[in-house]
Amino acid sequence: MLVVLLLLFGSIAWLVWIVSRASFAATETEGSGWRDLWTLDGDVDRGRYLLLGFSLMAVKYNLERLVAGMMFKRSWSVFAHYLHAPDLDFNKYKGNDASLYSLMILMSFPFIWTGLALTLRRLRSCGLPSWLVILFFVPILNLFFFLAMASLPPAAAASDSARFFDRLIPRSDVGNAALTTGLGGALVLLMAQFSTALLKGYGWGLFIGLPFVLGLISSLLYGHHKRRTLGECVAVAMLSTTFAGVVILAAAVEGVICLAMAAPLGYALALMGALFGYLIQSRSRGEHAAAMLVLVCGVPLLMGAEEFAAERDAVLPVRTMIEVDAPPAAVWRNVVTFSELPAPTHPIFKLGFAYPVRATIAGRGVGAVRRCEFTTGAFVEPITVWDEPKLLMFTVTSQPAPMKESSWYPDLHPAHLDGFLVSEGGQFQLEALPGNRTRLTGTTWYRHEIRPSWYWRPFSDAIIHRIHERVLAHVKALSEAKA
Fold first, then answer.
1. What local confidence, expressed as pLDDT, does residue 163 receive?
2. Of 398, 378, 409, 402, nearest to 456 (Cα)?
3. Residue 137's pLDDT band (cuts 50, 70, 90)
4. HSE on the CB side for 156, CA within 13 Å?
5. Cβ distance 440 to 472 under 8 Å?
């Protein structure tokens, strides 16, 4: 194993040395040699930054892929750090998982330092504040940050394409803001359709990359003819983001509820993009058409690469517990099948999310088929464990849409309603308590294919908890009434 690692690290060192020598020899920046890969002194031009950045990313990914495959017999995606980021609590990892993630982190240190050094020097070349290097550590945003840094000219340079933009962009504040907002709405609509309708994907590119680029481009366009204040850049970015949401709603791409759920993330990232755009335009007079073009092209490329490399998310459990003043035998009868539930009172169900209405069962024991009727259809649940009156476990072979979108279009059915929030199975566990009482625990195992999961998981967990609470409260009421 040690020999394999030495060979791999030797190969990476050799390749980096070759790339660095070739790239430094082809540029006019003073200083050359492999030492510049980690020094913080001086600056670096965009050609060298682009070449070294792509080379190091390619080498790092292939090195990780080789180590994961040869040493741990595991596949490794180029998006593994984003789609399957390890928990920071390493006590949760055992055996090969702990060794794999520990080794990957150790292997990342030289690449992190090299990327940090190159980015600091590139920021210095562009005349931008060095604290922007924190974007180097933000997943997905660092890809767009890299593209921007690789396309921006030196601080004193002027872009020839500014002449075209001088004629295209209105000089009046109102006209400029209107054009910026309209272009932003068109960009988001086009990219959203590309991601959801063509790629059938809801991922980092859509929810992280697109709003950041929207905020950045909005502030750059608005600051093309004259320098804008930070407040003006933020205002036009927020206006563009809001208008983009209206366009998506009017074009029947999404409904009100999903847009409202995505809004906090979208506005926060548009704000970050606006801040970055403000810093660029205030130092380089807004002449950065190349940067905007690279970023716009980078969004669909990221979306396509993400969907090509994406793997299915892990199955996640959601558990809800209630105590019932009735023995397990009485509770069991109302778990297997239950009558019509009363109308829901929780406001979440009034927003269009599906909720259970009744449950029936055909047969008895393992192999019986339970049907849990929701407002959007039925869950078909074949029984896999029938341990009366302790445990009822089932899989899910068919399920309806998780919600009905709120929109003025009666037949709106976005792609994320089919196969993006999937229930894999569930169980009811009954535990006898003193005093002829029962602890009833409902569990649902599910996965969702909407990323980033750390943002969407709290929403889905909360909805499933509300569904559990509705069913468990009904079982409790039925059981206690007959006890």
1. 60
2. 402
3. confident
4. 0
5. yes
pLDDT band at residue 18, thresholds of 50, 70 and 90? very low
Q: What's the burial of 61, exposed, middle or buried (CB within 10 Å: 0-12/13-18/19+)? A: middle
Final residue belonging to a domain, choices 289, 311, 333: 311
**pTM (two decimals):** 0.70
Same domain, 38 and 102: yes
Identify the DSSP state of 326. S
Same domain, 209 and 307: yes
Given the structure tokens 């009735």, which residue do they identify?
A: 326
* 56 plus 159 within the same structural domain: no
Please give the Cα distance from 140 to 133 (Å, whole number): 14
Q: How far apart are CA 16 and CA 22, in angstroms?
A: 10
* Residue 410 belongs to some domain of the structure: yes
Residues with Cβ < 8 Å from 434, sequence gap 6 or more? none
| Secondary structure (H, E, C), 233-291 | HHHHHHHHHHHHHHHHHHCCCCCHHHHHHHHHHHHHHHHHHHHHHHHHHHHHCCCCHHH
* Confidence band for 421, pLDDT divided at 50, 70 and 90: confident
Rg (CA), the chain: 27
How far is the C-alpha of 220 from the C-alpha of 161, rounded, in Å? Answer: 14
Do 186 and 306 share a structural domain? yes
Domain housing 468: 316-482
To the nearest 10 degrees (0 to 180), the angle between helices 173-193 and 230-250 is 50
Between CA 310 and CA 156 the distance in angstroms is 41
Convert the pLDDT of each residue in 350-382 to its tens digit: 888 999 999 999 999 999 999 999 999 999 999
What is the number of residues in the chain?
483
Specify the DSSP class assigned to residue 342.
P
Tell me which of 294, 311, 328 is where a domain ends. Answer: 311
Separation between Cα atoms, residue 161 and residue 142, nearest integer Å: 26
pLDDT digits (tens, 9 = 90+) for 196-211: 888 888 988 899 999 9
Nearest Cα to 428, choosing from 352, 308, 293, 324? 324
DSSP string, 91-137: GG--HHHHHHHHHHHHHHHHHHHHHHHHHHHHHHHHT--GGGGGGGG
Mean pLDDT, the chain, integer: 81
HSE-CB of 195 using CA atoms within 13 angstroms? 28
Contact 240, 215 (CB under 8 A): yes
